[in-house]
Structure formats: C-alpha cells, structure tokens
Specification:
2 copies of one chain form a homodimer.
Chain A (H helix, E strand, L loop, with lengths): L12 H8 L3 H8 L7 H14 L5 H7 L6 E6 L5 H16 L3 E6 L4 H12 L5 E4 L6 H10 L3 E6 L7 E5 L1 H14 L5 E6 L7 H14 L6 E5 L5 H15 L4 E4 L2 H13 L9 E3 L16 E4 L1 H16 L7 E3 L2 E4 L5
Parallel strand pairs in A: 1-2, 1-3, 3-4, 4-5, 5-11, 6-7, 6-8, 8-9
Antiparallel strand pairs in A: 10-12
Chain B binds a DNA duplex (30 and 30 nucleotides) through α2 and α4.
DNA sequence: TAACAGTACGTTACCGGTAACCTAATAACG
DNA sequence: CGTTATTAGGTTACCGGTAACGTACTGTTA
C-alpha cells in the first residue's frame, strides 16, 4: 500500500515520473495543471500518483517557485471571541476553497505582539495577510509596505490602509446609535466598555456616539471602561459601577452586545424596567441576545459578509485583479425594544 | 534602510555571512543557536543581521532540514465557538512560545472534511497535529499512523488514540451530573441538545447521564436534539419544543451551558421557578452563566488547562521526550443553584 | 518542398537553507 | 613534549520541486 523509497519515506515526484515513464518536469506540469502535455500523459501520471499515494510537498514547491507560498496569515485580537471566531470561520472557508492555508495569530490588541507575529509569519513567504488590529506599529507599516505583500485590514474601514481595508465604519455605527438614543428622548447617557490592553474598536464607536451627543449639546454623563476583556460579567459589573457612581442614567451605550446583555441582567436584577427606567444599546447582533425578553437595540453586522469579503478581496489582489482599496461592509441599526 | 540584492529582494543568509566575513554555514549556526562558534563570531553575525534586516526564510529552512517544519496543524469543529476559541487561544499561545506556527482548519464535525484538510496540511510537513474531531475516517487513522507524525486528539479522552489523547472524560461528566440530578430527587428528566451534522461530544455526556438514570431504573423522559449548532436560541427553542411535547419535566440536562442558559430564559419567560418548578443543568462553565440570577448547575472545565496541556504534550512528543499517551484534564461538578 | 509555427516533451540550473563531513588550531593529558 | 581530545569554522552535497530554455516531431503554408 505504501511504497517508501526516498529518505523521508515519502513518494517523491521523481518516483512518480519514473513510474509513469516521463520526466519529472512533465509530471510537475500535470500536477500543477499547467500546459504542455497530452491527455494520455496526464492519465499515465495520475494513475501513478494514485497508485503510489503521492503527497505533494508544498514546502519544496514554495521553495522552488521563488514566489510566495499558499499561506495566508490572519491575525485577530483573540480567538476566544465569538465575533472574531465567526469572521475567522467564514474567512477560513473562503480561503480554503481557493487552496490557501490559514496561519493564525492572536495579538491581544497589542501592536507590538502583532509586529512580532508579522515578522514571524513573513518568514513563511505568505501570499497575503489579513490583519484585524486597528493600530499597527510604525515598523509594521514600513515592513509590510516595503515587502509589497497583499494586506487586507479588516474590522474597521481604514481610510489610509497599508494596502486594502474591508470593514465596518465603527465611528458611524456609534454616531447613528447616538442619534437614535437621543431621538428617544434620553439625555442622561452613560457608556460602558472594557479595554484589556490597548483600546479596541469599541473606542471608535464611543467617539461616534459622543459626537452625536455633542451635536445635541450633550456629552456622556459618565463613562466606565473596565480594564478587562469584554464579557457578560464585565457588562454586568460595569453597569453596577457606573450606576453606583452617578446614581441613575436614562440609557447606557455598551461597547458590544455581550456587555449590553450583561448590563441588561444587572438592571433586571435590580428591578429596573427596560426601557422605561433605563435604555440599553449594544453593537454586533450577537446570538446571545436572542434569549432576552425584548429585542436588543443594537447595530446588526454580518460577520459572514465581512469574512468572505475580506477573503475575496485578498484573493483578487493576489491574483492581480483590479480591486477596490476600501470595501465597506454594511451595518444596520436594529431599533429593538430596549431603548 | 533596506538593502536588496537577491532576486526576491530579500537579504539572504549568504549576504549576511559575507558581510560578517564568515561562511554561510557559520551564520546559519549562529542563527539557529547551534554550537560551534565563538561569542565574537555571534556578535559579528548578529550585527549584520540587524543592519541588513535579515528575515529568515523558513520555507528554505524546512526544505533544507529534510525533517519537518515548525508548523502545527490544529483542527476544530468551528472557529466560531467560544469554547473552542478559548482552547485555541491557549494552545496557540503555548505553541507560539516554542516557535511553532498554527495552521487552522474547521471540519464542522465531518470526518470527511477533516480527512481532506489533513491531507492538505500534511503536504506542509507539519511537526505535529492537534485534532478535535472525535471520530475520524479509517483512511485518516491509517494515513496518520503510517506517517508516524505526532498527533494529539483533544477534547475527549480517547481510550484508543491514534497517537496521544488529551481531554475530558465526557461520559463521566454526564454520569456524574446524572447522579447529582437524581440525588436532588428528580425523576422526570429530559435532554436538550443540538447536532448540526454528526454527533459531537455532547452525545457522550448524554450517554453518561443516561447510564446514571439506568442505574436508578430510569431513562430520559424525552430527548430533543435539534439539527442545528448549539446556541442560546437553540437552547431556548429546544426547551420550548420538549416542554410542549411532554407537558412538564422535573429537570433538563443540556448539551452545554449555552443551551442551558437559553433554556433558563425560556423557563423564566414562562414564569417557571428554577429550580422549584424545573431544574437546569449544563456543561462547560461558560462565562455567559455569570449573569444569571442563580449560579448555574454545571460541570466546570478548564479550557486553558486543556489547551496548554495539549500543546505541551505535543511539543514533548515532537522533542522525543517520554510522554503519557493519555492525559486527562480534570473537571468538577459545580452544584450551583439551578437544580 | 523548404520554411515556419506550434505542441509535447526533456535538460539544466537553481531556490536558501541544513546535514554531514573535514580541517586547522588550541587545550588537555600522561 | 608528543599524542589525543575539543573547539571553531569551512566545504560540499543535497533537499524536491519549478523556471527557463532547448529539441524533437508534427502539421501548415507559400
């Protein structure tokens, strides 16, 4: 079943070629689906490939081809975040369909960690990179520009991308939600978020929301930004903190739905009626919100669309097809019933 | 700043060596931290590495070394699952610390998809694989055993692993919870789960629970297994289904905490008191449970311990250190207040 | 029918490192 | 003090593919 011969115990292309009675180069052409061989030759080669159980060596292929590999590097803040996970799933699927392998890195919102990872991944000659850090070190930007490697920055629509950008406009999401909350007559509004290391994209939504408040001559009555990762309990606890501090609020804008849900349950546990006593707004249309007694007021985003769009954009760039530098993924404010 | 010379525009090891006035081989030794060079030589080489901005070519390195690369392939059912994400995060961190790169695949609980992915990843000569599918095709098992590549199967403690296994004992988790629920005097017990494609590990917990019931001369009053992925709403909806079907239950065992939480809110929305009217038990100690009014009765598992343990086990095997074939990650039943 | 283009291959060199082996100096030793 | 280990470093071959180019052979056209 398994015929060993080369030192590594694998069947090499040379052996396949010999068995098929053609040159190594011809076998290579057949396997790469290049041109320059007859149908008969293809059959001979493929028959031996099957019979010998030939496994192509992509390391040798990448090495020999002088160009890049079929590796795509993808960096995210955390893998253990349902929303990043969803994007990863969709990206990974789209990339795999075109024969790319995903190499993953988690930078935990630290540009320095990201830089280290990028240097590492570049030594694999990746065909492209997908980055979801929203801020990079100067060295990172220079390095990537110098290498000329296709790079897609995702999540936030970056107006001056390293190469390309696919994402949501977080600032606008916040601004739109700000106007919506104001339109419901609230004026005494707080913000609850969490930043473990460096500010994430929630900070941009907060800014957008704040700008809507400013247009109405207002500002956040209070802000509670925990030094922690976003989570249900962070939302719960952050709400407790902010309410203890300011006494009461008309409404709270949360960094994301997970925290908003945590806040929802804190308010409920204190017997507050939502939205009569307090309004709650989130971001991200997370699945967890589906079990709330009311529909959560939030911004609906499609993680699937983002992931697929990012993968498609990168692949197009790799293939040299003309490509937009910036692709916005649409978002929609879902009024819900919690504001 | 950037001195180009070779065709690819990169600085090669040869150039570094020439600049440092040593041979290519010596430069290679220095960079790999091998032996056979003086401190002075190291400094000369490292200075040129810095000055020229040398980026090692791991593809060439892997190719030249005849052996395996520093790639570790990791497959999970879904990336967009908070619990798998948490394990990935911890695994990825532990692997990165030792210089390994993670290549990820999602098999969606399909052994065939997993097989395709494994064939693909093998062409990168990975140093090892971490698999979280709990069932594999025959071809997969044969292929991996024939290759002799280090493989760690995680999540479930596999009693006949391909190579090594690190995980929880899901059957025991279910059995223990079954005994606990029985000890609270419940007898009319249902099960709610979800299997999108093939049965996942929840099925094993269900079996364990069922065996505890059987020892008491009982069985599940009803089982509701949705054809869907686990999720909050799946738990909500599954509970609605099962209760509509059987009228009432003393308690429900859920596939995991996410579904249990969904069920909790369904019951709450129907005005049922927990645990007086109905008991709820889950698995996985997920963060979302922290916002419930009561502590959820569940099995506490450490995703971090699992991830780190899996990575450590694999690395030890790669390095040829003696290693247990099976490593159990402890779990603990948290009585909580919902049963 | 000679000149030419196109197809189907084969040959050669090379990618950028690393393993294996070799050499020259120095240190250790009886 | 001669012999033997040890250390620092150089030489050579090679990994398994692919790019670039060369060469038969076939069919077409002036």
């Amino acid at each position: 079943m398994k015929s060993r011969s080369s030192k590594r115990g694998y069947v090499s292309l040379t052996e396949v070629a010999e068995a098929a009675g053609v040159s190594k180069m011809t076998a290579s052409r057949v396997l790469r689906n290049a041109t320059g061989f007859s149908e008969e030759t293809r059959n001979k080669v493929m028959r031996e490939v099957e019979r010998l159980g030939y496994v192509p060596d992509r390391i040798a292929a990448a090495f020999g081809s002088e160009q890049t590999s079929t590796i795509v590097g993808v960096s995210v803040p955390y893998l253990s975040s349902s929303i990043f996970g969803a994007v990863l799933d969709s990206m990974n699927g789209a990339l795999a369909k075109f024969g790319y392998q995903t190499m993953i890195g988690a930078h935990e919102n630290s540009p320095e960690t990201e830089e280290t990872w990028i240097k590492n991944i570049l030594s694999w000659r990746p065909a492209g990179l997908i980055l979801s850090g929203h801020s990079h070190t100067g060295a990172t930007r220079e390095l990537l520009k110098a290498q000329g490697i296709p790079v897609v920055e995702i999540w936030n629509l970056n107006t001056s991308p390293i190469d390309m950008s696919v994402g949501f406009n977080h600032y606008d999401c916040g601004h739109e939600m700000g106007e919506f909350v104001l339109s419901k007559g609230h004026t005494n509004i707080g913000y609850v978020g969490a930043d473990a290391q460096a500010p994430g994209l929630g900070a941009l939504r907060r800014k957008g929301f704040a700008s809507a408040l400013k247009s109405a001559g207002l500002q956040f009555a209070s802000e509670e930004i925990l030094i922690d990762r976003s989570g249900f309990y962070a939302g719960y606890y952050g709400t407790e903190n902010i309410l203890n501090r300011v006494g009461s609020l008309d409404a709270i804008y949360y960094q994301d739905d997970v925290m908003a849900i945590g806040g929802f349950f804190y308010c409920q546990s204190r017997g507050m009626r939502i939205p009569d006593d307090i309004g709650i707004a989130g971001w991200g249309s997370m699945e967890a919100a589906s079990v709330l007694p009311q529909r959560l007021t939030t911004t609906v985003v499609s993680t699937q669309a983002l992931g697929k769009s990012a993968a498609d954009t990168l692949i197009a760039r790799i293939r040299g097809e003309p490509q937009e530098d910036m692709v916005i993924t649409p978002t929609r404010l879902a009024p819900g019933g919690t504001v």
